[in-house]
Amino acid sequence: MVAARGLPGGPDSWRSISRREGLTAELYARDGPIACRDVQAKRGAERSFLGKGRFHGCLLVPLKLRGLMLGVLYLADTEVRDFSVEEIAVSRVLAAMSASAIENSRVHAMLASGLETARAAQDQQLEAEKVRSLAEIGGGIAREFNQILAVILGKSQLLLARATDESLREGLGVIEDAAWREPMWCIASAHWPCPLSTPRAMPPT
């Protein structure tokens, strides 16, 4: 209608319509189609877009679905005219189809929003599972690594207790110091209890 009758397009083409005024108020009061031969000739100016748009013959049909009022279908002519029974019947069918399309669009938007929310929640859950799995893997690696270091530390301490050669003792001391440092790093990086986290025993002299 906007394009066919020369009404302004763009954002200014939107018209505010009150349920309490003019033919729209009559339609809501009657809860059925309203046909007007000449809206310009009605008592009291029609202050909706029908009057301002210089329309004459008008037919208003409620957009209803399952008893719920979704809006109004406006059919207007720039000429004074009556609407036949057949035209009103066709407009009812058109209004029913329009109401169904509006409701389907609303339901589709709700479903799309719900699906997007579900996908976001699923992505967050998968990310949390990945982090948990990586933490478990890291903890397992740290435990295995600490067990190896515990064996190295034990052997080096035994050898250090028996060794008399100073250069050998110095080398074993380096190994022991390294074995003590690595478990501490494992604890800090994996946040897992380390079997070697007890105070270091001083080697026998």
Structure description:
This protein is mainly α and 205 residues long. It is built from 5 helices and 3 strands; from the N terminus they run H-H-E-H-E-E-H-H. The chain has a 3-stranded antiparallel sheet with strand order 1-2-3, with helices on both faces. A hairpin with a 2-residue loop joins strand 2 and strand 3. Helix 4 runs antiparallel to helix 5. The longest helix has 78 residues. The chain is rod-shaped and about 120 Å long.
Query: Mean pLDDT, rounded to whole units?
Result: 75
Fraction of residues in β-strands: 5-15%
Distance between the termini: 103 Å
Strand order of the largest sheet: 1-2-3
Structural class, please?
mainly alpha
Order of helices and strands: HHEHEEHH
Main sheet: strands, sense, barrel: 3 strands, antiparallel
Notable features of this structure?
mainly alpha; disordered N terminus
List the helices and strands and how they pair.
Elements: H1 2-5, H2 22-30, E1 34-36, H3 49-52, E2 58-65, E3 68-76, H4 85-162, H5 166-190
Antiparallel strand pairs: 1-2, 2-3
Helix pairs in contact: 4-5
Short description:
59% of the residues lie in helices and 10% in strands. The protein is built from five helices and three strands.
